[in-house]
Design goal:
11 strands, mainly beta, globular
Length: 128
């Protein structure tokens, strides 16, 4: 129903500030809460950021709070992740995801990983 394609990954240096994008198609974009997740080599997938439908309320993992900013453009059916001051430990495959549901369900930490659709990911490698 919904297809998600990430872009913007690549090899960067520590301290760089690239922007990731996610293009959505196949559904009504404004109906979905959106999220970014990442998976580092040898580690479990972890939550990075999310933005709600409607009022575009955001939330962030403690590890990226103050450095990363998530936004959405319902007119372009895209979400972005501005990543500032990257560190080597930010190296990971970054995944875009989407889900339906109420705002309470979006805000619940228990439902943090309960996304309905996932992109294939884009690799960000941060060199020190």
């Amino acid at each position: 129903q919904v297809q998600l394609v990430e872009s913007g990954g690549g090899l960067v240096q520590a301290g760089d500030s690239p922007r990731l994008s996610c293009a959505a198609s196949g559904g009504t974009f404004s109906n979905y809460h959106m999220g970014w997740f990442r998976q580092a080599p040898g580690k479990e997938r972890e939550f990075v950021a999310a933005i709600s439908r409607g009022l575009s309320i955001t939330k962030y993992a403690d590890s990226v709070k103050g450095r990363f900013t998530m936004s959405r453009d319902n007119g372009k059916n895209t979400v972005n992740l501005q990543m500032n001051s990257l560190k080597p430990e930010d190296t990971a495959v970054y995944y875009c995801a989407a889900r339906s549901g109420t705002f309470r369900e979006f805000a619940s930490d228990a439902r943090l990983y309960d996304m309905d659709y996932w992109g294939k990911g884009t690799l960000v490698t941060v060199s020190s």
